[in-house]
Amino acid sequence: MNAKITSDHLGRAAVVYVRQSTMAQVTGNLESQRRQYDLAGAAATTGFASVTVIDDDLGRSGSGSMERPGFERLVAQVCSGNVGAVYCIEASRLARNGRDWHHLIDLCALAGTWGSTRMAPTIRDSSMIVCCLG
Questions:
Q1: Distance, CA of 56 to CA of 70 (rounded, Å)
Q2: Residue 44's closest CA among 85, 94, 76?
Q3: How far apart are alpha carbons 81 and 89 in whole angstroms?
Q4: 97 near 63, Cβ under 8 Å?
Q5: What is the pLDDT of residue 99?
Q6: pTM of the complete model
Q7: Is 21 one of the catalytic residues?
Q8: Measured distance CA(105)–CA(31) in Å, rounded
Q9: Catalytic residue among 7, 21, 80, 92
Q10: What local confidence, expressed as pLDDT, does residue 102 receive?
Q11: Rounded CA gap, 116 and 133, in Å?
């Protein structure tokens, strides 16, 4: 287990955010989906008793040009204070624009939510720890 994950984090839910940008990716790139859904197992193995998968945005671009109800749901859950960790396969699955990405990081920092991605842009607040999975 990552030393930055505390019992407080584990006492709250882990949320796995799954997104692919187009319906062609959804139907044609099943390996990406499998890897993203597998993060739920990683969260459970870490010790989170409750793991929620948000996949409402399959087939929706993360560029900021369309509504993403799954991302909005993720933000709302983080703001509720009930999320101990956000898991995502890479930063680009969360957002393709800095506004959404940095907004989520700021909210995670305020809520004390731990974050995990394979890759991430420079993070200015160490409250959201980024690590490599698998």
A1: 5
A2: 85
A3: 22
A4: yes
A5: 81
A6: 0.81
A7: yes
A8: 27
A9: 21
A10: 81
A11: 8
